[in-house]
Structure formats: C-alpha cells, structure tokens
Design a protein that fits this description.
Four copies of one chain form a homotetramer.
Chain A: E1 5-9, H1 15-24, E2 28-32, H2 40-45, E3 48-49, H3 53-57, E4 62-65, H4 70-78, E5 96-99, H5 105-116, E6 121-124, E7 127-128, H6 131-135, E8 139-144, H7 147-160, E9 161-168, H8 172-201, H9 206-217, H10 220-231, H11 241-257, H12 263-277, H13 288-295
Parallel strand pairs in A: 1-2, 1-4, 2-3, 4-5, 5-6, 8-9
Antiparallel strand pairs in A: 7-8
Helix pairs in contact in A: 5-8, 8-10, 8-11, 8-12, 8-13, 9-10, 11-12, 12-13
C-alpha cells in the first residue's frame, strides 16, 4: 500500500481499533477527537493529533469518518461553528472522504453533492462487524462510489477488513446496504425475543430452544445473540441499545423515501422506545428481547 | 433396531419418504391413507395397506401420525365417524402414539389425556426438515414424553433422522419447540421480504444484498430462502403457504394461552391472509415476501 | 305483546336486567342458572326456575341465551353432559333460539345448522349497550335470521331495547355486525391509550386533550371512555378486560375466515394479553390504555 | 377588534378562506404567496400583496402562517435564500408570529427560540376543521404561548373560528394537541377501513354497519367519514392523503422524542406508504381504507 495521508474522525470502540490498524499498516494518520485523551494509544503508535477538524484534513489524501450518526458527521465536516470554519472547505480538491459511519441514505446523498461541488471525492464504505472484528481486521466493507475513487480507497479498506463488496457507483448504495443488513439483525433480535418469551412463559428453558435453533440455522450470529438473550446478559453493551433505535430509524427513513412499508422495523422501533422509557438505554441492543419479556409479564 | 409393528398415517410429501425409510429399516409398516393409490410405492417396497384407521392400529406397537394439522389427526384417531369406530379405541394398551405432525399445544395436551386414560403411550416427536431431508434421513426430531416411552421410540426416530433432542417429559413440550422453531423461520421470511422490498424499491438488486447477508449470517437457511425470494421463485411449493399461515396461528394460539404478545407472529399472519386473499395460497410459504413487495407497489 | 313462554339462560350483569324486563313485560319466563341464587330477584318478580337446561326449554316458544362466549352457549345447549341430555334436543320443533350473546361467526353458523335439522328456528340478536342500558330498556338489537322468525321474536326484542336493526336473513350476519361494532370500540380504546400516553409523557393533562376531542367528535362514547381513561378509573369493571380480549379474538377469527388482515385488532389483542400477563384481567376493558401507558414507562 | 396589521402566508384551501375572513373583519391584511394569482380574490376584497416575505412582515403586528409543513414555514420565515434575506429578521420587535400550520413539536420549539431572541412573540394556534369550516368561521383554535401574547392574538382567532382552547404557555403544547387530535382521526380511518373490509369480504354492505355505528357513536365525524369510506368516494380530496402521512409522521416524531410507542400510528403510516406506492397520493386521506380493502383482496 503506497503511502497516503489519512485524516481520521471518531475514536469510539469501532474507530479506535480501525485507526490503529491504519497506523500499523504504515500510514500517516492524523486524528481529531473532541476528547483528545482518547487519542493517547494512537499517538503512542505514531499518529498525530490535529487541534481542529480543519487542520486534520488540510493535507489529507483521504478523510475517514467513523462517527455515531448523521449529526456527528455534519458537525465535524459541514458545521460552520468549528473554530476555524467548516472542515469540508479545507479538504483539498481531489481528496476523498471515506465515510464508514452508518448514516442515512438522505444524508449520504447530501454529502455526495457537497463534496462533488468542491471537487472532492466521496466513497461511502460502512462496515459490518463488532469492535473485536475491527481490532482483528475482520470487518467487512460495503463500498460505493465512482469506480476510480473506490479503487483509490481500496488499500485503506484492505487494511481495515477481510473483504470488500462494491455495491454500486453511487455512495448511498453502500449506506442502504448497511441499513438493510442491520435491519436483518434487528429482525433476529425481535424474533429471539418473542420465541424465548413464549418458551419461558411455557415454563421451559430458552437454552434448549437455542440448541435446536443452532442446529437449524447453523449460524454464528444466531449462536452469539441467542446465547446473550437466553442468558439475559445485556451488560456491558457491545453495541448500545440507542444505536439500535437509530438503526431502526434509518431503515424507516429510507423506507419512507422509497414508499415501502416496513412494519417489522416499526415493531422494533416501538420496542426500543419502550426499552428507553424503562431505563434500558445503555444496555446492549439485544436487550430488545427484555422488553418483549416484560410485555409478557416476565 | 428390534422389530416393531408400525401403523403409519399421512403419505404427503413428508410422510411418504418417512414411511419408506421405516420399511427400508426392516420394520413391519401398515399404512392407511384416504387415497390408497398414494401408498403404491410403499406397498411395492413391502408395506401393507389397512382399509381403515382402526384396522391399521389394531396390532401396532407404535402408531405414527404425519398429518397436516390438528383436525386431520383428530379425524383419523378420535373421530367416531370412521366406518368401524374411533381408531384410538383400537390401539392396544401399552402401544405408543408417536405424533410427528406439527399440531397445537392445546391439542397435544388433549391427546396426552386421551391416550393416558386408555393405557396407551404418547410421544410428541415433530421433525425439522423439508421433504428432501426426510428422504435423506436427515430430519431432526424434537421428542417429548415419559422417558421410557421416548426410549422405546428412539430406534424409530433414528431411522427417520440424523439427530434427536429430548425436550421434556410432557409431550406438548416438543410441540411448543417445533412451533417456536417454525416461528423463527417465519420471522426470517418476513425480514427478507421487507429488506428486499426496500432494496428493490431503491433500484438495487436483492442478490447483492443477499451476498452480504450470506457473509454476515453464514447460514444455509439464509442462503436457501434468500435465493428463493431474491429469484422470486415460489413455485413449485416445497412447503405450502397455507401451512405457513397455520404455523403462525399455532404460535399465536400457544402465545395466547401463555399470555405472551407475539406481534411479529401477528404481522406474518396478516401478510399470509393477504397472500391468500390475492390468490397465492398454493405458492411456497416464502411467497410471504411477495405480499410485502406488492404492498410497496412492486 | 302476546304471551310467549321464554326460557332464559345467563344471569350476568347484562342478562339479569334483560330477563327482569321480560318479566315486567308480562312474559312467562323460566330461567336456568348454574348458581340458582342469582335468580332470586327474578323469582321474586315472578320468574320460575328450572333445574336443568332441558327442563327450561321443554315448553318454551323462545329460548334466549345471554352467555359469556361460544363455550358457555355450547355447554348449555349442545353438551350431552347435562344431567338429562343436551337441551337442544328438548327444545320443541317450531320454537326459536334467540341468541343475544356475542359469539363467533363460525359457531353461529353451526348453531343455525343444529337448530335447522331439528326443525327449530334460530335468530341471532346480539345487543349493543352496557348494563345500565339493559336495565333501562335502551339496548340496540342487531337481528338476523329468516324473516318470519325475526318477526316472531320482534315483540321480545322490543321489550329489551330501544330499537332493532335487521342485518339479513342469515343469523351470522347479526354476529359479524356485533363483532365489527365492538371492534370499533376496541379501536377507540387503543387510540385513546396512545394519544393520552403521548400527552402525559409530554407533561400535559389528558383531560385537556379530551375536551378538544369532545368538541371534535361530539360523541357520548368518546366522552364516557375518554373520561374513564383520563381519570385512570378502571374499577369496578363495567365490562371486563378479558371480554375485550375475547372480542378482539372474535374479530380476528372472522377476519381469518374471510382472509382479511385486521392489524389493529391484532394490536389490541396483544395489548390485552400484556394486560392479563400484568394482572389487569379483572379491570374494565378500557384498562387497555393502562398497558399502553406502562409501555411508555408511565 | 382594534385594527391590527396582519401579514398572511399560505393561500391554500384552508388559508384563503381564513385570510378572507380577516379582511371581512376589517383588518389590514398583506399577503405573500409564491403564486401571486392565488391572491386574486383577496386583493379584490381589499388585501394587499407583498412581493417578498420580508416585505409582507415589515410593518406587521401579527404574522400568520398557514402552510403545509415544517419545511414550508422554514422556507418562508427562516430561509436566507429569500431575495432580500430571511423574513424573520424583518418582523418588528414586539410583533407576534401566529403559527396556525400543523407543524412538529420540535420545530415549534425551534421557532419559539428564534422569535424569542429577536424580541418577537410566538403563539402556536393550529386549527381543527376542514375548508368548509374555515370559510364559515367555524374552526376551533388550539392556542398556546405566553398569556399576554395569546390575549393579543385572541381577536384574530375569534375572527377565524367558533372557539378557542388555550393549551398552555409554551407554544409546542398547542402543536402536540393538534397532532394528538389528528391522530385520533387517523385511528378512526384505520378502524373504519378494517371493519368495512371485514364486512364487505363477508358479503355485506358497509352502509348497514355504518347505520349501527352512527347509532352507537352518534358522532358527526363518524357519519361523515363513514359515508365517504362506505361510498368509496375519495375524490376530490378535501384533505389530501399525503397530508395524512405527514400527520402520522408528526405523531411518531413527537412520540419518539417522548419515548412513547404508538403502534397504531405506525400502522397508519405504513398503510399510507402503501397507498402512495399504489398511486393514491392525491386521493382524500380517508382512502387509507382503500389500501386496507386491497390488502384483503377487495
């Protein structure tokens, strides 16, 4: 991988291991984070710190965002409220924004236009995988954008994960893919929640059902989430419940724009709202099942 | 496997290969079917035909039912309308009814009582697997009943499948397990339907999403149903749509008795009703996804 | 009203005032009730007590049922377990069964056949109104059955209510009407529940919203149920919650037979199941709203 | 009513008759509309036309908005893209924005802040009633805002409607009230849709059910919408279907902010999306029932 200058935003439990992998791959990484102390390990490994988003992107070939949601990306890149102006205006012509955050289809389209009229590239490249996978370079990258831009980002993607699927030439195509994949996970959590509630209320052990389901589906995802839910082990949160609500909302927003009813997404959204109303906001998103159990009087 | 005399009811696309496997295993099998011609292959292999349910069970050690639903089992075993009386009264004391059909929890409890007060055994042993698996002896058997009865049936179960899970000592425990497992399949069909509708309406190819999901879930069930739905290949029906409606109904009935809301099961039920109202009754149950697509104007 | 001999079954909070009105109207009323003490007031006014359902109907011109559900009607009329045989066999040819209970469409069709092949008449005549309306002869009767039979029952209906709507010549047509009307009430309870939960969670007083809704809808039903729910006054139960669950189930059963999705009925059913799981079984059916409030963390 | 200078925005089928009533009441009305020809009748009666939003509000005591949604209000008042700058900056200190549009709770809170820091007043005053009611001065106004501001707007409200309910001192309180009231109407449309689908699919005439419901609820709203739906008369649209979708969305947004599940609102939203996907976008919002009928194969 030829040397590229990377600006990196978002040092949460996904972003930090991703940025570390880029440093390990020998890239020149400049990070900006609201809480500079979060960059300590990165700096130790050789990353540099920028004092503002604008400074971070000034010389970058590629700017990577791994932030919580639309608002966080907007704040970092587009907001004129930054001390020295909107960062997007400082990103060089010809540089590429590689957006790995899970954001809305509508905002991805907006970003595409903003970058395009500044002569910058934009490749959406959300990733599948939990923090452990990020650390182990085992993420799966769904990429979309103009072919040449995707190719320029490919070495960076390869440093982050175990594989890349190119979803199309328009960035939002990667975002809708990520949204649909996360929806499939939400649907599974809902299904586990209902099946286990029926089982428990019938006086039976959900682990016994899980064993059958593992035989039937033979999927590590079923084994993993099934065990968490059967054990009712929702702390610590690998992926926080309110991010599950966000994902359900992203699916519903994309669906509304496309005039597609997604009643199962609405169902999940309502259960997450109930979870938040009952104080489960910081539990793992699989605690969706706990709300379903409570609704059954468990 | 010591020699046992088996009465077998239900020569549909699951029952026929199951009965053939029992004949192949050297058992003495007597079949009864409303349409005797359906027994032709079995007779060729050595099975005998009974002219009535009562005649079929008269000397049986084990009576196996593989029928469509509660009503069909009730008609064969309990109905006094049979030419020579209710078959259950002809089943010898000490013989066992091995119920492999997918029936309701409530009816399973009723059967347990009916057999019990006649000194007969009853082991619920519904199976997981489609017709191909039945033919290949690859079914998975979920068994429940008194320990000694389950043991007596074990050789028969081994002749039918690749594994057995004992779910408890009360027969209905196997039934609720089967109902919960089928519900998990229904939930997956619904999820595929919604995700693919969003994808198609966004102008994208559902096969591209399926590839991502196969990477994520790594499950043969996802690969198989995902492909059927992405291809919109709902004929011929491996498992008919109206049986999907029946399964959703079984989950809802068990859930109502246990006071458990299962809104996802209701959602599936409604989509199946819509499918039937639109003439999809004889399609494969995965055509659930087609209704969801139609609701999105596809 | 010419003198008719009436057998009356069901002395609950609806049936007792109805039977009293018939006695007041000068009819010869013979009642049967499992708990004979419930007939005390009726006997005082001149009604006679029968010791069995069969005895009650033996000389009757019209047999009226006002029982809780299908099972209760089946037990009284069709069950052979009665001390002296099934009551339906004792009802004279030419006599009419006037069924005022809220029963399923399917069972109403079954009753029509059972009476028909015994040369008896059957008029379904469910009523709208709560116990106060029954006492005040202000029920509204929805009647269906062969024209001449409906006419013969008309004087009796007039003694019970303030009006009669003839829904058709097939008895089940009155039952599906009653089921649809009750569904509209259930839908209103659900709507109140959700709107008030939003209002309360926003820190506002639901009574203020109710005032607006009273201005908008100008309906006594809204005023009445709206006040109960805004006051959270669910005891004593005018109409018990588990009867609400029954009504939702009747709508869903009729809808399934007609292949009609009724997702709002499923929603109500699930909330009632949750109510029962949380111990609200004996509250008024408007306590549906309480479950919705709890789901919002209230 | 003392003479006040009014700026009026939004001459749709609600806004035009409202503005005419203000002119009739002797007020000095200045209107701005993107399509100036829509102001013809108003000008004839004595209103004046402004060439920009800014010009319209420059001397106003009260600026009234009756626009389609959040975006339309934002465009008129806050957008800097207007030829001569954002109109809100031209509204005099001490003047009041009287917002009669149905907008979101979140945007109402934003407007309150924007006006407040410019020393302007803001009274939310959404109205209940269809265009005929607007013309006949029979709207019902739900008002909220600081007491003195509400009082200053009262004469204007009195010129528009038959009554005023003050919902609180914070403007958003009127908006959440309007949203909840519209939700109750949406719930009714859904309920009619399902009940009539069941009725029609059972081979019966929905008008016969409507007669019963009119007796039961005794509400002009039931009579009116029930007739439209039973007649399947959805054109011309008194209130367009896509505004129904907007209203469901406003309820869901307010509910999400308050962590309140509103599954019935989700149900309505999904049916509206399906309606739009099937080309019913410009029908009356009561055509929600048509989607439900189609889902039942009608």
């Amino acid at each position: 991988m030829e040397n590229v200058k990377i600006a990196f935003f978002g040092l949460g439990n996904m972003g930090e291991p991703m940025a570390l992998n880029l440093v390990d791959a020998g890239q020149e990484v400049r990070v900006y984070n609201r809480t500079p102390s979060k960059a300590a390990r990165l700096v130790e490994k050789g990353a540099r710190i920028a004092r503002s988003p604008k400074e971070a992107v000034r010389d970058a070939d590629i700017a990577i965002t791994m932030l919580a949601n639309d608002e966080a990306v907007r704040d970092i890149l587009l907001a004129p409220a930054q001390p020295d102006g909107a960062a997007i205006d400082a990103l060089p012509r010809g540089a590429i924004h590689m957006g790995t955050s899970t954001i809305s289809v509508a905002f991805s389209k907006e970003l595409e236009q903003e970058h395009s009229r500044r002569g910058q590239g934009y490749v959406a490249s959300p990733v599948l995988g939990r923090p452990e996978a990020a650390a182990a370079k085992k993420l799966w990258v769904m990429a979309a954008g103009p072919g040449d831009q995707v190719e320029r980002c490919r070495p960076v993607m390869e440093a982050l994960g175990r594989g890349i699927s190119v979803m199309g030439t328009q960035p939002w195509q990667a975002n809708v893919t990520k949204i649909a994949a996360n929806f499939m996970l939400l649907a599974l959590l809902e299904a586990f929640g209902e099946a286990f509630a029926l089982f428990r209320k019938s006086g039976m052990d959900p682990h016994a059902l899980l064993e059958i389901l593992n035989g039937l589906f033979n999927s590590p995802v079923y084994a993993n989430y099934g065990r968490m839910i059967a054990d009712r082990q929702f702390q610590p949160a690998g992926f926080r419940l309110k991010l599950g609500l966000k994902d359900a909302g992203l699916a519903l927003a994309a669906a509304q724009d496309a005039a597609v009813p997604m009643p199962l997404a609405s169902l999940v959204r309502d259960h997450y709202l109930s979870a938040i109303a009952r104080g489960l906001e910081d539990a793992d998103w699989s605690a969706l099942a706990e709300v379903i159990a409570q609704n059954a009087g468990l």
